[in-house]
Amino acid sequence: MKAAQLIRDYFVKNGLGLGSFLLVAVLFWVVILIVLPQLSMLDFSFRHHLPPPEMGGPKDTYTIEHYKYLVLGAPGADTSYNVVDLGVFGRTLLAAFFVTILDLVLCYPLAYYLGQSRGGGAIRILVLLLIIPYWINEILRAFAFRIIFGESGLINEMMLTMGLISDPVDFIRANVALYAGLGYAYILLMIFPIYNVIESLDRNQIEAARDMGASWWRIHWRVVIPYAKPGISSGCTMVFMLSAGALAAPQILGGPSSLWFTQIIYQWFNTGGNWPRGAAFAVVLLVACIIIVLSMMRLFKVKIGDIGK
Amino acid sequence: MTKGVDVDLENVWIRFGNFVAVREANVNIKGGEFFSFLGPSGCGKTTILRSVSGFLEPSDGKVRIGGKDMAGIGPNKRPTALIFQNLALFPLMKVWENITFSMEVKGASKAERRKRADELLDMIALPDQGEKLPSELSGGQKQRVAIARALCAEPDVLLLDEPLSALDLKLRQHMRTELREIQQRVGITFIYITHDQGEALTMSDNVAVMRAGVIDQIGSGHAVYNDPATPFVASFVGENNVFRGKVKSIDGNMALVSTNRTGELLARIATTAQGKLKVGDPAMMFVRPEVLNIAPDTSPAVNRLTTSVLHEEFEGLIYNVFMEGSEGKEIKMSLVNVGKQRQSAEGNNLTLEYVPEQAVVLPAGELASE
Q1: What number of helices (H) and strands (E) belong to chain B?
Q2: Any coiled-coil ranges, and where (chain B) (predicted)?
Q3: pTM of the model as a whole
Q4: In chain A, what residues touch B92 (CB-CB under 8 Å)?
Q5: Contact call for residues B195 and B162 (beta carbons, < 8 A)
Q6: Which residue in A201, A210, A211, A220 has the most chain B C-beta atoms within 10 A of its own C-beta, making it the best mutation to test that interface?
Q7: What is the pLDDT of residues B55-99, one digit of tens each?
């Protein structure tokens, strides 16, 4: 009864045409584009790796062998755990975490400045300058970073001319280029949620805190950051999820010895041709990311509804 | 016994580019005084307040608090506390944390802060509300929390920027009494900014009336109301009927003003204009609605005028009678309701009289816009 009432209210409020469009569009988006493919991935991850003719045959049963493989490695291997894949997995999450912190540290002051200076032409130009690089293709941007950070790249050349170093630094091998590239790729996703929240912060609160003798550090710690928390967590969630799931930047900017977990997934799907294993690895990454984000939110007392703000 | 300190503005000018927000302000506010700046919006009163609180440095002149020049001293270093128009309570801090924020800044322990918060909550009659968030309080309660927060720092001077403007009428009137009481109790200097002359008159020891960056008059509420220094003050503070004309003759403190439509009217020359106003000068004569009365007969005199009644309205405490004046302006008379239904005089002629000493003559000048 209540549901029927809700549906009626919804159509009365939005009209039949717009109401049905919204409903169909949202359902299509959520069910067809998100839920169903993920479910089929999940299903895949529990199946055996079989040649196409045997699919659907008697051998096509459910198994957890791919998950087992991720944890324990191939049967009969030297080590009792799959050290290589688990190592890459842990390193990827750690690196994504690091990239998130880096972006937060870089973006918070910028977002604060943008949000608190009331509009004006200079601000609009600044925002535009932030957006324009994103008109360029992600892969091109990654290659540009490779050039900048390369052994005979801009930074090395400059430092050599200035006499700061005598031999070029291998930024690629040290993964500096990778972190810089990833951090740069998601800067906007960090700035805008924080900027949106800080823009609505009443200036008088900052002045009131200042009037009561608070230092800049304390004003931010006690007044601005608590207020901006929904924006900060929203930005951090996006940057963390996307960094952990990035593929192009690690492929192009990553050092020869460093592998991103997404690259392993890609290999299983592509060159490895083992879709079920790739699916299992992808599911593990997704679940791990969700668990990390949720526990971070709990740690910092952010409600899931706040993220949408 | 008073803890309050003097606040002096000495020849203060504040400019923003070419715009002069405050022009040559000279004010001496005595320690422990309740002092108001009264003026229409945009007259520079908030700018003055910001220069006292330290958010703004005057372009010229000196601000002294307790005799000490405040130049170069930031808001966090001044012995002032500011209550903002929108109160600016911290929404994510509990009430007690809000109140004791100034102690937190100084590094006071949590126990100390709790104790002080409880004392202040008792003072503002909100005991046991410390654990709430500001959003859980009513408008008047928030008001009191803002006052407690400002007083917690034990400032020598409390600055209030129209803090009552967001409240409804009844609460506003109540808070006036309460603010005045708190001020008497703590004994520090209060500087109050308002565009509401009722607030300024009821609470203040002294009032500065401002117009377009200029202080027109400083004096007690009584002085500002009864002996205005300029036509602006006369027309901005309270209601006033204005009659334009020329000074016809002067006798001591009294002047006879000949007006176009209402004949010759006698009134006292305002103190500031005494000795300066000369025969033949363009002048303005002001009579307050409550000073006007219905004359017992219609014989002409220098304190009488006859005009036709346009409309009347009943306000409860008073009847307002609006009559035809000069230059399209209506003359307003207020009669106290003594419990008898008034016979409407709409459309009839009335002869009014007033006590000439209660009307004021000033040199012609700018009036407050309606």
Answers
A1: 9, 20
A2: none
A3: 0.78
A4: 226-227
A5: yes
A6: A211
A7: 999 999 999 999 889 988 988 889 999 999 889 999 999 999 999
